[in-house]
Design goal:
The complex is a heterodimer of chains A (485) and B (403). Chain A has 485 residues and is an alpha+beta fold. Helices cover 25% and strands 27% of the residues of chain A. In chain A, α2 crosses α3 and α6 packs parallel to α7. The longest helix of chain A is centred in the middle third of the chain and has 24 residues. In chain B, β10 and β11 form a beta hairpin. Chain B starts with 9 loop residues before the first strand and ends with a strand. Chain B is built from 15 helices and 11 strands. Chain B has 2 domains: 130 residues, Thiolase/Chalcone synthase (Peroxisomal Thiolase, Chain A, domain 1, 3-Layer(aba) Sandwich), CATH 3.40.47.10; 217 residues, Thiolase/Chalcone synthase (Peroxisomal Thiolase, Chain A, domain 1, 3-Layer(aba) Sandwich), CATH 3.40.47. Classes of the chains: A alpha+beta (485), B alpha/beta (403). The interface between A and B is large, with 54 and 46 residues.
């Protein structure tokens, strides 16, 4: 048996009320009202497709033996680098073993499903035993049209393997079809979109049935056998139900496209929906997961009784619950870089990244690996040549110790309105970890007045700075205060 | 065993510019202004200066790297000059270089000069930390500002001593009220306006809980000292009172504060160490009883509050009471920032340590005008650079030379 062995989800904490988008744009596009209900997930300024995928991956692999992961795929159409393997950054952030194989999947909304299928085939080949597939998407749209309302940010990650399978892979069928519902040429910031009616009628409503029918014919599964039919589709329940109807799948088995709670998370969305379906499934449930984009891929999974072991895992449901409403559309636009604001001279500081320095310190900077002194046992971050314990100061006694999953609490803090940040005020301070180590970090996903000395934190992998002059994104681990909503 | 430099150094003369937004002056002009006063006070010719230490922190805002900024500006004839930089403790570092040179016998007369030209930055506050932080810090340093870094003290101090936000805010407010009151009497001070506690508490927040009036002035300025041995000073200034150095200590963070949980974030380890060593060097047993006046590094009001404990004058957790009791006011037992402090005299980084010394020097010699204290014996300067979690503390104690 082979298939999905674990899952993890991540929907960013902030949710932009669509009424705020509609209110600002109704004067030019009153027709938006039809899609203006609910809220869309909104990555913080320091989150991108890569960091979203890292967070989902952490949730997916928590408690598992990371050293066994032998293949890591990352999918997104909004990756921070065109030429620097993004999956490699993810592997370093997750502190996977050096001998892991890795690849990026991109170029289509379907690439999340393509990565999943490639991962499954890798397991099937027998050459790989534990495969991590992550998809993350921080979506970029122009202001003031339906795509802005539809799109949400999010990520999903799946572990694939042969042991402790929670959803067995039963087969797949793909149709490749250069149907140009939208496209983004090289160097372009935004998608160019064709008419929605054509996309709905000639795209979704014809290509998806072709793929699913192919899957049914191949696997012998019938429409009435299906417990969950998941397919991202911005046109909503009417279209999805009509597609299900064509295939003999009862309409009560179709899954909501999550427009009201987070929106369509792009490359990640087929996996986000699949995880949502698995979270609610019982052993024996058959799930068809579809992904649309220049064709369609349909996959069939059957949930096993091992699902019971994953009830506490952070999938989509739990991450949706860590929620803070945002009403400020201007702030959303600002974080996306869609406004020309005067950030004053402090914003001019130039940070060229010395990649030699980054490479030497990659485990510390990207992987949050600190040290444990083999002589006195003191845990410390960062790891340096000489032990930080003033009673020890032994040389060259530091053994690698991963800090990213260490719990801790705030030891000191401020909210700073002077320093330049895209999300003022900046929060930062000392964190004391439960293992006794202490260090200074930026805080993120925090609002003034919520924290105090003693507030628990979780470390998260985030964008530190984007060097716009040179196109380089720096990453760092920050402390996210765990605060009640 | 080394016995320190107590009474081995006499201050022959000092100079200090008016601090403030000196739009019409560059660093070179400021240096000349301070140096001319100093030279006249010392009563010597420039050519008698045998070595110099030049303190300036933000070289990208001032005269650039190296010591030529001083040598060329003051037209020194090829004498040895060293440029020093040690964050905001740069001024004391320059003074230390000059004192040690004279105490070692390497030269007879040396100059320590500090200068900073901050108002060419283009914005308020200190220059942003950017690429100058170095290639590693440039990738890992949290997005801090000076007020934000020092504001950390407040949260940790409150947690440690179970102090309410309101009580702490009021106490640090009173610290600034006191310094503003003192600054009014100082013609060279940048800010010369008394401020009420109500206005203090209502000032806009910069980095919680520090408001605008909890932050010191960002100023242009220069200060300098000419030092020599007491023997030479007595010859040059027969029958005049002399000010000698009783102690001069510097302590630098070991990284414990930044990475070891033995530090709780509410105090300065360096200041505790440097002050204890300074008292020992000066032979001071009980600083609360023996010190006459102090100038501490009040870059932010909260810094002054915790420093009162770190220099072993207020008991641990007792600084708020001393502040509220007026212990550090001009008419209190140990006046603090009698010249207005960094808060009101201003804070041109490289000059500040020497500016503190300038006031102690004037006070000991009875030359402090309207703000003169009665018969001060020992004056302490506390000059701190960096951040609470990683810093440099320079401390001096000066007094009348009794030899």
């Amino acid at each position: 048996m082979f298939g999905i062995t674990s899952y993890g989800g991540y929907i960013p904490r902030y949710r932009l009320n669509r009424g705020a988008i509609y209110g600002a744009n109704a004067w030019m596009a009153p027709g938006l009202i039809g899609s203006a209900s609910g809220e869309k997930s909104m990555a913080n300024w320091d989150e991108d497709s890569l960091t979203l995928a890292v967070e989902a991956s952490r949730n997916c692999i928590k408690g598992l033996d990371k050293s066994k992961i032998d293949l890591a795929y990352l999918a997104s159409v909004n990756l921070p680098y065109q030429d620097r393997q993004n999956a490699g950054i993810m592997s370093t952030a997750l502190n996977l073993k050096d001998s892991v194989e890795s690849a990026d999947f991109t170029g289509s909304m379907r690439s999340g499903a393509s990565a999943l299928l490639a991962g499954i085939n890798a397991v099937k080949s027998g050459d790989y035993n534990n495969v991590l597939v992550a998809a993350g998407d921080r979506r970029i749209t122009k202001m003031g049209y339906l795509h802005e309302l539809w799109a949400g940010d999010g990520a999903a990650a799946l572990m694939l393997g042969t042991e402790n399978v929670i959803a067995e892979f039963k087969g797949s069928f793909t149709v490749t079809d250069d149907f140009v519902d939208h496209y983004r040429g090289l160097g372009e910031k935004f998608d160019y979109n064709w008419e929605e009616r054509w996309i709905k009628d000639e795209g979704y409503s014809k290509i998806i049935p072709k793929a699913v029918q192919g899957l049914m014919d191949k696997t012998g599964v019938k429409g009435e056998d299906i417990a969950r039919f998941t397919t991202p589709c911005v046109f909503g329940a009417r279209t999805i139900n009509a597609i299900a109807g064509q295939l003999g799948i009862p309409v009560d088995k179709t899954m909501d496209n999550m427009h009201s709670v987070c929106g369509d998370t792009g490359t990640a969305h087929s996996l986000v929906m699949l995880i949502s379906a698995i979270e609610d499934a019982k052993p024996g449930d058959k799930i068809i997961a579809v992904s649309f984009g220049q064709g369609a891929t349909a996959m069939l999974f059957e949930v096993t009784d091992k699902i019971a072991d994953h009830k506490d895992r952070t999938g989509i449901k739990a991450t949706l619950a860590d929620r803070k409403e945002e009403q400020n559309y201007m702030k959303f636009l600002s974080h996306r870089g869609l406004l020309s604001q005067d950030w004053m001279m402090r914003a001019e500081a130039s940070w060229r990244t010395a990649v030699t320095t980054l490479y030497r310190n990659r485990k510390m900077i990207l992987g949050m690996v600190g040290g444990k002194c083999s002589k006195c046992g003191t845990d410390q971050f960062p790891k340096m040549e000489i032990c930080v314990n003033p009673e020890c100061t032994a040389h060259h006694t530091q053994e690698d110790l991963e800090f990213s999953e260490c719990d801790g609490k705030i030891a000191s803090y401020t909210s700073d309105l002077l320093t330049y940040t895209l999300d003022p005020p900046a929060h930062y301070g000392m964190v004391e970890f439960d293992n006794g180590a202490k260090s200074l970090f930026d805080f993120t996903d925090n609002e003034t007045g919520l924290i105090d000395v003693g507030t628990p934190i979780r470390m998260v992998f985030r964008v530190r700075n984007i060097d716009k002059e040179r196109g380089f994104t720096q990453y760092i681990w920050k402390a996210k205060p765990i605060v009640s909503n | 065993m080394a016995d320190g430099i107590k009474d081995k150094i006499a201050i022959l003369g000092m100079g200090c510019t008016k601090f403030g937004e000196r739009w019409d002056m560059g660093p070179e002009n400021l240096m000349v202004e301070a140096f001319e006063e100093c030279l006249e006070d010392a009563g010597i010719e420039a050519s008698e200066i045998q070595a110099a230490w030049y303190g300036t922190c933000y070289d990208e805002q001032g005269t650039g790297k190296g010591a030529t900024g001083l040598g060329v500006t003051l037209r020194f004839p090829y004498i040895p000059i060293t440029r020093v930089e040690n964050f905001c403790a740069t001024g004391t570092e320059a003074f230390r270089g000059a004192c040690y040179a004279v105490a070692s016998g390497a030269c007879d007369i040396a100059l320590a000069l500090g200068v900073e030209k901050l108002k060419d930055t283009g914005y308020g506050g200190l220059p942003a930390i950017d690429a100058h932080a170095g290639p590693l810090n440039g990738q890992v340093l949290p997005n801090i500002s000076a007020p934000g870094a020092f504001a950390q003290l407040a949260s940790a101090y409150r947690a440690k001593f179970n102090v309410s936000k309101e009580d702490l805010k009021r106490a640090i407010g009173m610290i600034s009220v006191k310094s503003h009151a003192n600054g009014v009497k100082n013609p060279k001070a940048h800010l010369r306006k008394a401020v009420s506690i109500e206005k203090m508490l209502a000032s806009p927040i910069i980095a919680d809980p520090l408001g605008l009036f909890d932050c010191c002035g960002v100023s242009d300025g220069s200060a300098c000292a000419i030092v020599t041995t007491p023997e030479i000073a007595k010859k040059l200034k027969a029958n005049a009172d002399l000010v000698s150095v009783k102690a001069l200590q510097i302590a630098v963070s070991s990284g414990v504060e930044l990475g070891h949980n033995s530090w709780d974030g509410s105090y300065f380890s360096t200041t505790q160490q440097a002050s204890a060593r300074a008292y020992e060097e000066a032979g001071i047993k009980n600083p609360r009883e023996e010190l006459s006046m102090i100038e501490v590094h009040d870059c932010f009001s909260i810094t002054e509050l915790v420093t009162m404990e770190d220099i072993h004058i207020s008991p641990k957790g007792g600084a708020i009471k001393d502040v509220m009791d007026g212990f550090y006011n001009a008419d209190g037992q140990i006046p603090c920032q009698i010249d207005g402090g960094l808060k009101c005299f201003g804070h041109p980084i490289g000059a500040s340590g020497l500016r503190m010394l300038y006031e102690m020097y004037l006070q000991v010699l009875g030359r402090a005008g309207e703000r003169q204290l009665k018969d001060p014996k020992y004056g302490l300067t506390h000059n701190l650079g960096g951040f609470p979690f990683s810093n440099v503390c320079g401390l001096t104690i000066v007094g009348k030379y009794e030899g």
